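INTERNAL TRANSFER SHEET
From: sequence group
To: structure group
Subject: Exopolyphosphatase

Please process the attached sequence and return the structure record in the designated field. Keep the field labels unchanged so the import script can parse them.
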Amino acid sequence: MKNLVIIDLGSNSIRMAINKRQPNGSFKEIKRLRNPVRLSHDMGPKKILQPTVMRHAIQALTQFHTIYSKFDDYKVIGIATAAVRQAQNQKTFLKMVYDAIGIHVKVLSGTEEAECDYLGVKDQIKAPRYVIMDVGGGSIEIIYVDHQSHHLISLPVGAVSITERYHLIDNVSGANLFGAQEYFHNWLKRVSWLRFVHHVPLILLGGAHRALARMNLERDSQPASALGGYSLSRKQIFKEYRHLLAMNLSQRKHVDGLETNRASVIIGGLLPLTMMMNHLDIDDVHFSNCGVRQGLIKHAIND
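Return from structure group:
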């Protein structure tokens, strides 16, 4: 195998990364594509993937297939996360994917997704104790690392589900924001081992967090490639969040560094971060450009 193709069917977008094997056995990413198909859109309490959304996903995957099939000696790993994991019509969708591009998609459990996050990030972090938080469209993975041991959990809530449940898309009312905060607070209370974790570095993964970093990098005239290892202070983050809350959807779509299709879920996507910072009682956060896909690559190397 010369090339490893990873297709990630996320809740808020579908991504493809093509990685070329290096002489030392490692992999180097040579191409990355993202399609903003929001699989978790309008799933409702019955957790049904919508027909239009599934069709758009198949169109995106067909386009990806056209690109990666031009490469020599490749292997494809397809994974799906929260939206497909929670979907009642999961089997129907996975069959559509197989019929369209001939791959069997592995639906990661929440625990497997969190474990991949940990594997993808751990070699970058030098601190003996830290917390990783990955906010996706339909789930949030939290990992607490304490020297050689780690605890992890996947919560079945995310940027899209919080946004849709509490109507945080356009103008945000105080009542809806408070309701969303109380909702996520109740989820955090269920994580027993997190109650005693304070004053440790917080490492951020996920689309909403990357968007927050890009907005600030753009403002500071820094390239997006500087995201890995980038840090923001509590003051900067809360100022940015208040700024976004004061806007309507149309205004958010014109914020530099914020992708247009993410503007509708950015309030719900950053809310867990503000609450986690309060819980940990920390003054800054750190961003990583690694995560699930890098964890999968490590699995592939070991295999």
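Handover comment: The chain has a mean pLDDT of 95. The chain has two domains: 3-107, 126-287.
Transfer complete.
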